[in-house]
Every structure is written in structure tokens, then in C-alpha cells.
């Protein structure tokens, strides 16, 4: 059993219970429960003693005895009455505070329920935003790929437009030149009529001179002329045109057949060089050197044209030989340059696959390996192949031009 309560507290609880029965108090049940608990702390003997002590507070003295009250009892009653009033005031204050605390608790419970509902809604919205973010990242990758394709197509269209614009300017210039030429021809037509008679007289003189030259040429036999040509070629390539062989018509027939095959081979190399330059050039860069060579080769006479002019008239000798040298040098440079790109490709691929430069995001629930795997699956596996292709294409163009420049300087 717990220790008994003090007499003063028992007295106050009893008084509060009696007063509470006079009004409709909201905490009457709580007071009754407190009185029962206080009563339970006393046994029968203690209870009788406490009741005897409280008789003077519960019952008034007998008036018939007319015994005078002692002054000290009156002072004690006054003190008790003041304490009762103070306790009553304290009780009312605590009752008001309890009512306010109950209302505040109800408000807090309502706010807590509303906060939980808002948190649940926000968590749902967060999940939806994460799903939407994943979809947007995938769409961004697709849009970037589409944008790169469109940029390439735009560059090709711009190049074709520039070609058409240049062709139009050339046609306009040619039309102006033709008009001026027609005017000159009409003026020269009159001069030619006057010079016709002079030309006829000069023709007779030239015929006589040509007859003399033919007579001199007949003195030299065809075999002697072929031998001279053979000796000339022997000086350049003695391992092919050996001096122990006596050339004849069949020899030069074979040489003509070989020359035709070599020209076919050279034409194939020229087309290969043009196509390779077209594939590797960077049309978006104005200072791209491969694009410069491609435009120069395609807008100027090719190997067949320069070779024809040189063989027939002896013109464009330097152009023919320089162009032939450039074409074979480009063919060699494409092979060596692309080989260098292949040799260096492991380093480029390793740098691109290095995860330290990836924009991965880790968290409390996401490990670094999981973040790397997620970024590779959603982004890297789509972007890296295309990026490597662009990088290799750029490196190939740089390596090919470096080898071409180096080979041209060596000779």
C-alpha cells in the first residue's frame, strides 16, 4: 500500500468534491477518482483518526452550550477560509488551462492529420516527378540525336546551296563573256575577210616548207624513232625498259595497253580520293583543309583532262604531274592516317568510358555502382557510340592531312 496522504490534502479533496456536487462541473469524475485513490491509501484505523481531526471543519459547535470560542480557533478558521478561497481560484485557473490544453491538443491532432495527408500527397507527386524525369531524360537523348542529324543535313543542304550559287555566278560570268566574245568575233570577221588572201599566199609557202620537212622525216626510219624513245625511257627506269631489248611496233603496242590500264588505275585512285575527302571533311568549318582540297579537286580539271592536254598539245605538264603526285599521296595518307586512328582508338574509348567524368548522382539509397549502371543504361549506351564516331571521324581527318603534308614535304 502507498503512503497515506497529508491531512490538508485530504481535506481539500473532500471539500472540492462537496463543492463540485453543487454545480455541473466537467471534471467531477476526475475529482471522484482522486478521492477514491486518496481513500484507498488509508486503513480503517487511520481513516477514523483523520475523520476525528476533520470534525471541527465539517460541523459547527453546539450553540446551546454557549461556550466561548477560543481566539486561536477563530484565527485557524480564518486561515482555512483564505486557503479555501485561494484553492478555489487555483482550481478555476487550472480548469481553464485544462480546457485550453484540450482544445490545443485537438487542433494539433487535426494539424498532424492534415500534415500526414499533405506528406502522402507530396510523396505521390515526388514519385510521379521521378518517373516523368526519367522519361524526359530519355526524350532529351533522342532529341539531341535528332538535332545532330538535322545539323548534318543542314550542313549538306548549305553546301549544295553554295555550289548552286557558285555555279549560277559562273554561268552569269560565262554569258557576259560570250556576249563580249560575239561582239569581238563580229569585229574580227571583217578583219578575217581582209586577211584571207594573205593566208592563202602564206599557205602556199607553208605547203612548200611542209613538203621539205616530210622529205627529211622520211629519211628517219620508224625503227630508229622507236629506239630513241626506248633509250629515253631507259634512262628513267632501266629496270623496266632494259637496254638489251630492241623495241619494235609490238613493244609499243604492249606499252600502250599497259598505259591504258595504268590510266584506269589512276582514275580509280582519283575517284577514291575524292570520295574519301567528301566523307571525312567538316563542312561546318570554313577553315577545314580536307573540304578545301575536295572543292579544289572537283572544281578544277581532273587527271584525265590534264593528261589529255599534255599528251596532245604538251600543255599543263606541271599541272598533270603535280595532280598525279597529289592523288597518290592522298591515297597513301588515307591508309596511314586511318591506321593511326585505329592504333589510338583504345585510349580514346577508355577516356570516353571513364566513369569519373560521368554526371552520376548518388544518394542514401543509391550506391555509386547502381548510379553508374543506371546512367550507362539510360544515357551513356546511347550517346557514347555516336560521340566516339564523331571523334574518330575528326581524328581521321586530322591524321590523314598530317600524313599528306608530311609525305608532300619529303619529296
What's the structural blueprint in terms of helices and strands?
Blueprint: H1 7-20, H2 28-40, H3 44-53, H4 55-58, H5 71-219, H6 222-236, H7 249-280, H8 289-299, H9 303-313, H10 317-352, H11 368-410
Helix pairs in contact: 1-2, 5-11, 7-8, 7-10, 9-10, 10-11
Low-confidence stretches: 59-69
Q: Which structural class matches the secondary elements?
A: mainly alpha
User: How widely separated are the two ends?
Assistant: 119 Å
Strand content: under 5%
The chain-level mean pLDDT equals 79
Give the ordered list of helices and strands. Answer: HHHHHHHHHHH
The Rg value, from CA coordinates, equals 58 Å
Count the helices. How many?
A: 11
Largest sheet, if any?
none
Please provide the count of β strands: 0
What best-fitting shape do the alpha-carbon axes yield? rod-shaped
Helix content: over 70%
Summarize the structure.
Helices cover 82% and strands 0% of the residues.
Verbal overview:
This protein has 411 residues and is mostly helical. The chain is 82% helix and 0% strand. It has helices at 7-20, 28-40, 44-53, 55-58, 71-219, 222-236, 249-280, 289-299, 303-313, 317-352, 368-410. Helix 10 runs antiparallel to helix 11 (368-410). The chain is rod-shaped and about 180 Å long.
Keywords:
0% strand; 11 helices; rod-shaped; single chain; 411 residues; 82% helix
Amino acid at each position: 500500500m502507498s503512503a497515506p496522504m497529508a491531512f490538508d490534502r485530504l481535506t481539500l479533496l473532500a471539500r472540492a468534491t462537496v463543492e463540485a456536487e453543487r454545480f455541473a462541473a466537467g471534471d467531477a469524475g476526475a475529482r471522484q477518482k482522486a478521492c477514491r485513490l486518496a481513500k484507498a491509501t488509508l486503513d480503517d484505523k487511520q481513516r477514523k483518526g483523520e475523520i476525528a481531526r476533520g470534525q471541527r471543519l465539517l460541523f459547527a459547535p453546539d450553540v446551546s452550550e454557549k461556550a466561548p470560542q477560543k481566539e486561536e480557533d477563530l484565527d485557524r478558521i480564518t486561515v482555512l477560509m483564505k486557503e479555501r478561497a485561494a484553492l478555489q481560484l487555483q482550481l478555476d485557473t487550472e480548469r481553464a488551462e485544462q480546457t485550453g490544453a484540450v482544445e490545443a491538443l485537438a487542433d494539433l491532432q487535426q494539424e498532424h492529420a492534415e500534415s500526414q495527408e499533405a506528406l502522402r500527397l507530396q510523396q505521390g507527386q515526388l514519385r510521379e516527378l521521378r518517373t516523368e524525369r526519367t522519361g524526359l531524360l530519355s526524350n532529351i537523348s533522342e532529341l539531341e540525336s535528332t538535332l545532330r542529324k538535322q545539323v548534318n543535313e543542314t550542313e549538306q543542304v548549305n553546301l549544295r546551296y553554295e555550289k548552286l550559287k557558285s555555279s549560277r555566278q559562273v554561268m552569269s560570268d560565262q554569258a557576259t563573256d560570250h556576249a563580249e566574245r560575239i561582239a569581238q568575233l563580229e569585229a574580227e570577221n571583217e578583219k578575217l575577210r581582209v586577211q584571207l588572201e594573205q593566208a592563202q599566199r602564206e599557205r602556199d609557202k607553208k605547203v612548200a616548207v611542209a613538203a621539205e620537212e616530210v622529205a627529211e622525216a622520211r629519211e628517219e626510219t620508224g625503227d630508229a624513232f622507236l629506239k630513241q624513245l626506248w633509250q629515253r625511257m631507259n634512262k628513267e627506269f632501266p629496270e623496266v625498259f632494259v637496254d638489251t631489248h630492241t623495241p619494235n611496233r609490238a613493244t609499243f603496242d604492249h606499252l600502250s595497253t599497259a598505259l591504258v590500264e595504268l590510266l584506269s588505275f589512276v582514275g580509280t585512285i582519283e575517284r577514291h580520293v575524292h570520295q574519301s575527302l567528301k566523307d571525312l571533311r567538316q563542312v561546318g568549318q570554313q577553315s577545314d583543309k580536307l573540304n578545301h582540297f575536295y572543292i579544289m579537286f572537283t572544281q578544277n580539271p581532273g587527271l584525265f583532262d590534264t593528261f589529255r592536254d599534255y599528251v596532245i598539245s604538251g600543255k599543263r605538264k606541271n599541272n598533270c604531274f603535280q595532280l598525279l603526285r597529289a592523288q597518290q599521296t592522298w591515297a597513301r595518307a588515307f591508309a596511314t592516317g586511318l591506321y593511326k586512328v585505329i592504333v589510338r582508338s583504345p585510349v580514346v574509348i577508355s577516356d570516353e568510358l571513364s566513369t569519373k567524368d560521368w554526371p552520376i548522382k548518388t544518394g542514401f539509397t543509391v550506391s555509386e555502382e547502381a548510379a553508374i549502371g543506371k546512367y550507362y543504361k539510360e544515357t551513356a549506351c546511347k550517346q557514347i557510340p555516336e560521340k566516339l564516331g564523331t571523334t574518330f571521324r575528326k581524328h581521321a581527318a586530322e591524321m590523314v592531312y598530317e600524313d599528306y603534308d608530311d609525305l608532300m614535304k619529303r619529296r
